[in-house]
Design a protein that fits this description.
The chain is of the alpha+beta class. Helices cover 29% and strands 27% of the residues. The chain has two helices and three strands. It has a three-stranded antiparallel β-sheet. It is flat, with a radius of gyration of 13 Å.
Length: 70
């Protein structure tokens, strides 16, 4: 799976926290751009109080030019 992801998908944005994640993902959805998200494993007991979860957002290589963060 990782090899497939690297060949056809490009890291577009790394978001920290749910608010930032939803902002980027909702923009991609409204632009009709397919995306995938990878959440690296994190062991953080404080997550519920201070959400700094990392979300790596990938888009297809041929759609990177269409994606824009506003």
């Amino acid at each position: 799976m990782k090899l497939y992801l690297n060949q056809n998908w490009k890291l577009y944005y790394t978001a920290f926290g749910q608010e930032n994640y939803f902002k980027v993902v909702s923009q991609l959805q409204s632009d009709g751009i397919k995306y995938k998200v990878k959440v690296p494993l994190q062991f953080d007991r404080e997550r519920s109080f201070n959400d700094n979860t990392q979300y790596d957002i990938y888009v297809k290589k041929d759609e990177v030019h269409r994606a824009s963060i506003k």
